[in-house]
Amino acid sequence: MRTWLKQLRKGYGKKLVSLHTWNGWIVVVLAVTGLILIGGFWRSLLGEGRVWIKTLHIIVGVASILPVLYYLLLAGKHWKQLKHKPWQRLNVVIVLVLLTGWFISGVLLWQFKQVGPAAANAALVVHDVLTWIGLPYIIYHSITRLKWFKEPARRTIQQGRKDNPLHPAAPQPIYTRRAFIGGVIGIGLTVTLAPSFLKWLGSFGGSNSMENLLKQNENKLIPTPVPHSASQHPMGGGAEGNFRVYTVTKIPVFTNENWSFTIDGKVDNRLSWSWEEFVQVKRTVQVSDFHCVTGWSVYNNTWEGIRLKDLLKQAGVQQTAQTVKFYSGDGVYTDTLTLEQADLDDVMVAVLHDGNPIPSDLGGPVRLIVPKMYAYKSVKWLTRIELIEGEHVGYWEERGYSNDAWVKNS
């Protein structure tokens, strides 16, 4: 083993530099693809390309552990070299923690169906925290360690340096050019990343809290649905967690004039309601969890609405119908359920959440709720249900998502 390690460490300096370079490129790819994946602008622009970017992010993320493992084989010698450089030792520890944490949390998110929503939710928080702490740190570290930037005396690996005794180093000013540029870079990173960081922070109770989303609700529909007593005082005790707002189009806005709800296709009775009529339809109340395929969850939601099976019974499903197709009011998004799935007791056309109207950012005024499946099946801004023959490939399924959207242990 010792002989093998000795052989491996030959050319140690060059290997360390090469390892540092490869690790830098891996972080760059992960940072760029990760920021694209969370960006609402890119979500709508890329379409199917987003799935390919997600695949690239996963592949590179899994591969990111290889430089870490290789470094650990060289770590003993490097650690000795940094014996009198505590800040550089600290930097090594920080980077190793970041890379290892990203890898573990990323694998859990990748395998979200196997680990379940609770573990995936925790992994997403860890992944996000490490990103918002680690990404600025690594960018700053990478820039300030470039050869043109750092002082030769600060280099870990120095190549043939010879001091000239005839020209001793001049006294250094209190505030050096290097410190000034470092400060400018730090301020630039803060200004650039702070808005995204604050938006992410808001998802834990700030801008994405239900109270704020209700204030921002742009739908203008009258009358407001009167909640059932079990909904007004949420029998689930109130939702635990905060929703993250993801869309593939601009969020539509509805009024009494432009909103209607229709059930048609392979049915005996084509049904259509105006808003004034729809709020009079008898509703029921249920408590269920809400799981997003990206890893986050909101627990104990009290939804009030109409069971899908009751609406389909009223319409009269014809024998030739095989699939229930749902249309979003954004004019783009669609998805489907089988007749068997649509017959589940907890599949609901929801109108209220915890006794309040569903805000526009969360798919209101009416959205589908399929608790046992990931949320891309729970179509937002629902305005039409069509019974069709054969199958239909939904928006995200067409772009690579699995048609098997069942949540583990549901």
TrEMBL record:
Source species of the chain: Paenibacillus urinalis
Alphabetized UniProt keyword annotations: Membrane, Transmembrane, Transmembrane helix
InterPro entries linked: Di-haem_cyt_TM (IPR016174), OxRdtase_Mopterin-bd_dom (IPR000572), OxRdtase_Mopterin-bd_sf (IPR036374)
TM spans (from-to): 21-45, 51-72, 92-112, 118-140, 179-201
Protein name: Molybdopterin-dependent oxidoreductase
Signal peptide per UniProt: none
Residue ranges of domain Oxidoreductase molybdopterin-binding in the record: 250-396
